[in-house]
Design a protein that fits this description.
Length: 72
């Protein structure tokens, strides 16, 4: 299953409370913080709602927390 790497590049300060809650729901708490989320309809909808605050790119398989470490 593909994933998206989502990075918060603009502060949600000054935007509607609903947009701030969407940022938090994605797991983003700080500027330039990145999270890897599954590429599904729910994630795409949240990203579309606050696309002006985010940078989105396809995630490398090594970025995912679910992938086994190469050292193991």
């Amino acid at each position: 299953m593909s994933s998206l790497k989502i990075t918060l590049v603009k502060s949600p300060i000054g935007y509607a409370e609903r947009q701030k809650r969407t940022v938090r729901a994605l797991g983003l708490t700080r500027m330039r913080q990145s999270v890897v989320k599954p590429d599904n309809d729910q994630t795409r909808g949240m990203v579309k709602a606050i696309s002006h605050l985010l940078q989105v790119e396809p995630a490398d398989p090594t970025d995912s927390k679910d992938s086994p470490d190469a050292d193991s």
